[in-house]
Amino acid sequence: MFDNTTDRRVLVSVSGLKMYFPIFGGILSRHVGDVKAVDDVSFDIYEGETLGVVGESGCGKSTCGRAVLRLYDLTAGTVMVDGTDISTMGQGALRKIRPVMQMVFQDPQACLNPRMSLADIIGEPLVEHTRLSKAERRDRVYDLMDAVGLNRDFANRYPHEFSGGQRQRIGIARALALNPKFIVCDEPIAALDVSIQAQVVNLLEDLQKEFGLTYLFISHDLSMVRHIADRVAVMYLGKIVELAPREGLYRDPKHPYTQALLSAVPEPDPVTHDTANRTVLKGDVPSPSNPPTGCNFCTRCPRVMEICRQQDPEFREVEPGRFVACHLFNESETAG
Amino acid sequence: MLDGATPSVLDVKDLKTTFKTRGGAVHAVNNVSFHLKAGELLGVVGESGSGKSVTMMSLLGLVPSPPARITGGPVMFEGQDLLTASDEQLRKVRGARIGFVFQDPMTSLNPVFSVGYQLMEPLRKHMGMNKTRARARATELLQLVGIPDAARRLDDYPHQFSGGMRQRVMIAIALACDPQVLIADEPTTALDVTIQAQILELMKDLRDKLGMAVIWITHDLGVIAGIADRVLVMYGGQIVEHAPVRELFANPKHPYTRALLQTVPNVRGERAPRLRVIEGQPPILRAAPTACPFRDRCEHAFDRCSRENPARRPVGPVHDVACFWDPETGAARDV
Fold first, then answer.
1. Is the Cβ–Cβ distance between B289 and B238 less than 8 Å?
2. How far apart are CA A141 and CA A174, in angstroms?
3. B149 touches chain A (CB under 8 A)
4. DSSP structure string for B126-195
5. Which residues of A touch B162 (CB under 8 A)?
6. What are phi and psi of A39, to 5 degrees?
């Protein structure tokens, strides 16, 4: 399709993204510090792929997803979506680009207006961004409801009449209304039961195939990300510590944090559970308003070295397609 | 169902809980029976709305009544029936003989009292300790659950602790009076995986040290696999399968358990190209069950499933299942 490119086309390109939230304190409410929610993050998302972002709560993965859609004014860095730099664009111009990029939110209860019927909710983006007639709009809403597996008879019902899984389908239908290319899914399954999670994940996969969508899939569930993502970024305290293709990351995690995170996932099998060699991390995640000097992970890292406490490791490619930010790979990998 | 010589510390028979709501009755717990032996860890799995939390809260009279109505029983604990016990007697059991850890560590501690005060409260109320002794014991407890610098942190308030630390404090409070039984209601659900791993290690350690029996409620099969001795699977307010943990994972009998084990993706081993799903929604329990609650989502359902609610029947030593379908023959059970 794209003759001028040898490789796949980059749809979303993020470089040096920083998102700081200021802290005001003292009697005069002076600016006393920043919560460094996202601190110098760079990645590309190729057209048609799913990039998974995993990390613990507070690591900045949701902020990162929202910043990519320009739901915040960025502190620094550039975000290119579909060839357009949106990082400093004004709200008026942004509004014209919004149909290309959409979002599915975590809590399907909170993101649907309880006073709007299902048809109004799914049709709202069409009212805002298109000039469809009432009848055309209704047809489009019906098409969308078919696509996400909601019965057309439900069009005049209200959100409270639906279960969590169905509400998430409404949220997905609304995100699809304007034929977007890129969707940020911010923990879309976290609020759902296990048996319903699989239904929603399968739906997202089907829609991706059908409409050629590109996803940024944010989740703390490592096993679900393994299922849906093509490449996975692991975040810790506002930074990406490892970015790698799915198979490589889960088979051979490089960064000590990724290793610990994967080994902390309880295995649904009592036999291997007892034999598994586990790394249990000590302590808690430091506060993002006051990160440690040097590597952010140095306070909990089982393989911490002297240099880690002084110098922040560079985010670099250690193998083709595999990026790691860790001093362990600076010495050993340069020789080979 | 009883096996071996270990006596049961808690014995629940035919527990039923119904809620009266404006939209009609909700039968949240239907004829639940189980026992808990000294020193064992009983896992309870199920989706939200399957009645696992309500069952445990009903035992201790923690659901407000009305709207709840608890019938059935008896629930025998240390020679007394908890369902007929007076408030005064129940108060002596709650927090002293049976500890409870709630799901959300953020909301279950009182923000206006120091952690030390909240830890010392059960010690002074139940054990009659004076302030100095209670404080010494509280320090010990905080050390036991792995909070560094325990003596100083007693004077801190809940907001000064992180989520994992608060859950440790909750566990310390539940353990304060050396309970016979600890009921943990999704204690790690609100926590991150690395913190969850810490709490799981801590629980295993504490159980070995203190020898109490634990009921661990969760929806995470991975957690169950790692920590439980025996497992109850709940669906639609009923226990549908009960087995030792290895037996359950190696040889699941109920279609719900089997499907549940297949829908969960794994971080290790083969990656399935597509997730198996259980179609449909969990049931809404408007009336007492007259049919199998899982029949609408079951791939093996036949006529009898919608006529009759299957009772739990043994299929092996300490393994019972409430289902008419036999996975070994692939046909209806001969009962």
1. yes
2. 9
3. no
4. HH---HHHHHHHHHHHHHHTT-SSHHHHTTS-GGGS-HHHHHHHHHHHHHTT--SEEEEESTTTTS-HHH
5. 284-285
6. -130, 95
B204 Cα to chain A: minimum distance (Å): 12
Alpha-carbon span A111 to A80, nearest angstrom? 26
In angstroms, how far apart are the furthest CA atoms of chain B? Answer: 67
Quote the distance between the C-alpha of residue B273 and its chain's center.
33
Token digits for B252?
């699941």
**Where do the domains of chain A lie, and which CATH numbers do they carry?**
10-334 (3.40.50.300)
How far is residue A121's CA from residue A143's CA, in Å, rounded to a whole number? 14
Residue in chain A nearest B235 by alpha carbon? A195
Q: For B62-75, write each residue's pLDDT tens digit.
A: 888 788 888 887 88
Beta strand A315-319 with A322-325 is: antiparallel
**Which residues in chain B are closer than 8 Å to A250, comparing Cβ atoms?**
267-268
CA distance A35 to A30: 15
Across the interface, which of A199, A246, A260 has its CB nearest the CB of B194? A260
Digitized pLDDT (tens) for each residue of chain A, 336 residues in all:
444 444 688 999 999 999 999 988 888 888 888 888 999 999 999 999 999 999 888 888 889 999 999 999 999 999 999 889 999 889 999 999 999 999 998 888 888 999 999 999 999 999 999 999 999 999 999 999 999 988 888 889 999 888 888 899 999 999 999 999 999 999 888 878 777 888 889 999 999 999 999 999 999 888 889 999 999 999 999 999 999 999 999 999 999 999 998 888 887 777 776 666 677 788 778 888 888 888 999 998 988 889 999 999 989 899 888 999 999 887 654 443
Average pLDDT of the residues in B315-319:
88
Closest alpha carbon to B49 in B29, B24, B35:
B29
Rounded to 5°, the CA angle A191-A265-A321 comes to 95
Rounded to 5 degrees, φ, ψ at B133 are: -65, -40
pLDDT the model gives residue B270? 77
R_g of chain B, CA atoms, integer Å: 21
Q: What are phi and psi of A125, to 5 degrees?
A: -60, -30
Instruction: Please list the alpha-helical segments (H only) found in chain A.
Output: 61-68, 91-97, 118-129, 134-147, 164-176, 194-211, 222-228, 246-251, 256-264, 270-275, 328-335
> Measured between beta carbons, which residues in chain B are less than 8 angstroms from residue A163?
281
ipTM above 0.95, yes or no: no
B272, B256 in Cβ contact below 8 A?
A: no
Task: State residue A331's pLDDT score.
Answer: 61
* Block residue for tokens 């939390």: B53
- The sign of the CA dihedral A52, A268, B236, B293 is positive
Helix, strand counts (H, E) of chain B: 11, 15
Give the sign of the dihedral formed by CA A142, CA A144, CA A146, CA A150: negative
